[in-house]
Structure formats: structure tokens, C-alpha cells
Design brief:
The chain folds into three domains: 46 residues; 104 residues, Nuclear Transport Factor 2, Chain: A (Roll); 79 residues, no CATH class. By secondary structure, it is of the alpha+beta class. The chain has a five-stranded mixed beta sheet, with helices on one face. Helix content is 39%, strand content 17%. The radius of gyration is 35 Å and the shape is globular.
Length: 246
């Protein structure tokens, strides 16, 4: 290409050649100016992006918020209280009042440094988060806590506490050991429906159906008073009908 251009230039007259060269130089200058302008714009854009704060709020993790809120009973950290809706917090623990005032009163009732909290497993289903936690305040306990979220804030809480068993179950299990993560998540809805019918049959005393809900001798029991396997579980279920459970 260079040879062809030089050959064509040689055929031009002096004036025409000068004009042609000036056109080429002008074209080159314009290309250089364009490159410089693009580079300047790119640098400015990078500088602007680095200075403009990210207006998007951080992604919330309800499970982590629950763990931090429960842990604050031990640490006294007030920051996790911000996870609670101050205008709408319904408390179902009969010993604790509604709202942030009830939570603060509970924390203040504990001698400083006396509480210990260790959440062993935590799961989420929609707006509900439920945690299985090892507590030690006014004695060792194991608790189930259920929190309901609404618009990113905790608005309701249920719990159930049981004194920690002094020794393992007849099969050697504690109240807290076992898997800590959920599997087969694709079967969640089917498992929820199964548990609903199980509880209905249990509370209505339909004992003839109990065996169909369990995996026989692969059934693991964490109740400190009951051994593993279906044969150990069924005797514990039989007294239920006589208690008129509703």
C-alpha cells in the first residue's frame, strides 16, 4: 500500500502534492484529537463512578439478622435491635412485652455477662425465619424461635424453651446434635404438606396412620426421653388421644 501511495504522489504536480499532503496531515490531526477526546471522557467517567456513592441499600439476610439479634442477648450489642420494626413488634412470649420496650426490658433483666447464646441451626421459609438455639440464662435451655418479617423488618416472634437435658437420649443423642443445613429443597412444599397431615393425625389420635410417616429404624429422635426408631416412638404417641388435644 505504501508503494502505491508513493507512486501516485510522484505523479502529482508540486502544488497538488502540497495540497494532498496538507489534507493527509489534517486528517491525522483530527484522528489524534478524537482519540484524545475519547480518552478524556473515559478517564472522567471512571473518576465519576469512583466518587458517586452506591445508593442501593445493602442486601439483607433475614437468617443472619436473626442470629445477630439472638446473639445480642449475650453481647448486649444494640445494633441488631434495628432489625425490629419499632412501630409493630408482636411478642408471643408471655413473659416479654410487645415492642422494643419489651426486648430492652428482657435484656436489662439479665445480669451483665450472664447470658450465653449459640444458634445451632437457622432456616427461612418465605417471611418466616426459625432458629434452634442453645441458651444459658437463669440455667441452660434449648429454644426454638420463630420470627416473622414484613417489609424487611421483624414484626412478630414466637418461642418455646426447654431446660437442657442432663444426659443424652437412650440412643445417645443430645437435643442439639444432627444436621444443621436443609437438603432436598425442591421437596419443600411436599414436606410441608406431609407435616401438616402428620400433625392433624397426631392431634386427632389417628394412630393407625403413624407408621406411614416414619422411615422405620432410620428414624432419629432428639427428645431426651425417647430412643431412636419407630418402635420407640409409637409408645410415646399413644397417650395423646386421652389428653383431648385440639
Amino acid at each position: 500500500m505504501t508503494i502505491v501511495i508513493q507512486h501516485e504522489l510522484a505523479m502529482l504536480g508540486p502544488i497538488t502534492l502540497a495540497i494532498y499532503r496538507e489534507m493527509i496531515m489534517t486528517f491525522i490531526r483530527r484522528i489524534r484529537l478524537g482519540i484524545a477526546a475519547v480518552s478524556a471522557l473515559a478517564i472522567a467517567a471512571c473518576a465519576t463512578n469512583s466518587q458517586v456513592p452506591n445508593d442501593k441499600p445493602p442486601m439483607t439476610n433475614p437468617k443472619q439478622q436473626v442470629v445477630e439479634l439472638l446473639k445480642s442477648i449475650e453481647t448486649g450489642d444494640s445494633k441488631p435491635l434495628a432489625y425490629i420494626n419499632p412501630d409493630k413488634y408482636i411478642q408471643h412470649n408471655l413473659a416479654v412485652g410487645d415492642g422494643l420496650a419489651g426486648v430492652r426490658a428482657l435484656r436489662q433483666s439479665l445480669p451483665k455477662g450472664s447470658a450465653k447464646v449459640n444458634t445451632v441451626r437457622v432456616f427461612q421459609d418465605g417471611n418466616f425465619v426459625f432458629a434452634h438455639t442453645e441458651y444459658n440464662f437463669f440455667g441452660p435451655k434449648v429454644g426454638f424461635d420463630i420470627f416473622r418479617f414484613e417489609d424487611g423488618k421483624i414484626v412478630e416472634h414466637w418461642d418455646n424453651l426447654q431446660e437442657t437435658a442432663a444426659k443424652p437420649s437412650p440412643s445417645g443423642h443430645t437435643m442439639l446434635d444432627g444436621p444443621t443445613t436443609a437438603s432436598d429443597l425442591d421437596q419443600t412444599e411436599a414436606n410441608k404438606a406431609l407435616m401438616q397431615t402428620y400433625m392433624d393425625d397426631l392431634l386427632q389420635g389417628r394412630r393407625e396412620k403413624f407408621a406411614s410417616y416414619f422411615d422405620g429404624n432410620n428414624y432419629i429422635q432428639h427428645n431426651p426421653l425417647v430412643a431412636d426408631n419407630l418402635t420407640a416412638c409409637l409408645p410415646g404417641c399413644r397417650p395423646w388421644p386421652s389428653r383431648d388435644c385440639k
